[in-house]
Amino acid sequence: MKIEPIDEIIPLTIGNVHIENNLNLFSLLIEDVKNFGSIIIGKIFNDDKRINEYVRSVVSCLLRQLIEYMDAIAILIKKSSSDPCILILRGLFENHIYLKFVLREKSEERAKAYYVSHLLTKKRNAEEHDFSTNLGRELKNKIEKDDISKYLSLTTQNCQSEVDKIDKILQKPKYQYIKNEFDKRKMERKKTHWYSLFNGPTNLELLSNSVGCLGRYNILYRYFSKYAHSENQLDNIDPQGAGMAGLVQIRNPEQAQQITQLTLTYGLDSFRIAIETLFPSLLNYYKQFYKENIEHLSSEMRNKNLIQVIR
């Protein structure tokens, strides 16, 4: 049985040629920057001589995740589904500041901290899926208290081989001092992120401030936080403030221009930083790309509202 949606809630078409053309333009612009980023990732990932191996691996993975976020935003913007992009944009921003933090200074140590944190997370996940471990029993008890547990099939696995493999890696001298720092903070009951080690920032706001992104943090984690936590949904009732109840349709393009601008900012800034730090000889290539593909429309978007919606 096929169900047709209520068009006023889920419109099947955008219904405005001007808006549709601009959304396509925004999407293509993000695609261009994303494609440029893939070239930078290729150069970093395949450079096994100049760049430290940990920096190369971590930076490549962070940039890869960043362009995946950009890819998703480009698809959603084209379909006029701009509000859900806020959630993706927050992840993109975190990748952006992680990259800046790794490349700013002490890059090898910070890349190793990121890697060790990854291994510790994998170890914990393995132990949680083994119900013979303390962590596994704890997780099992929590799941069984969940209302949805009756629909779930709980399976256990033996984690010992995975745990032994990770422990063997972490015992290597080149990781031991980082692992010791994690253990020390755990003993002190301090909440620890990989970037918190060795007196680093203790939360995302402080991390953002340390890399010069506090304003961007406030936009995404203050201005947009209510959307991310579903705390602003009543704004979609009586949007004109006229005392009349009504719901705003989904696939609403109102935020599309701002989302696109922020996506381009984080993407371009990330690629520029990677180039300046790791491949300064490519800086002119970056400037040429920006001038030929981005500059004109980016300037127009800063000075003109290209998406005007009358509710």
How does this model look, in words?
The protein is mainly α. It has one domain. It has helices at 17-45, 53-78, 85-104, 107-128, 134-144, 160-170, 173-187, 204-210, 214-223, 225-228, 256-278, 283-303. α2 crosses α4. The model has no long low-confidence stretch (mean pLDDT 87).
Give the secondary structure arrangement, pairings included:
Elements lengths: L16 H29 L7 H26 L6 H20 L2 H22 L5 H11 L15 H11 L2 H15 L16 H7 L3 H10 L1 H4 L27 H23 L4 H21 L8
Helix pairs in contact: 1-2, 1-11, 2-3, 2-4, 2-11, 3-4, 3-8, 3-9, 3-11, 4-6, 4-7, 8-9, 11-12
Given helix and strand content, the structural type is: mainly alpha
Total beta strands = 0
The oligomerization state is single chain
Gross morphology? globular
Low-confidence parts:
none
Q: Report how far the terminal alpha carbons are from each other.
A: 33 Å
Q: Determine Rg (CA atoms, Å).
A: 23 Å
- Helicity level: 55-70%
Mean pLDDT: 87
Give the topology string: H per helix, E per strand.
Answer: HHHHHHHHHHHH
Can you count the helices?
12
Total domains = 1
- β-strand percent reads under 5%
Profile the largest sheet: none
Key terms:
311 residues; mainly alpha; 12 helices; 64% helix; globular
Can you summarize this structure?
The chain has 311 residues and is mainly alpha-helical.
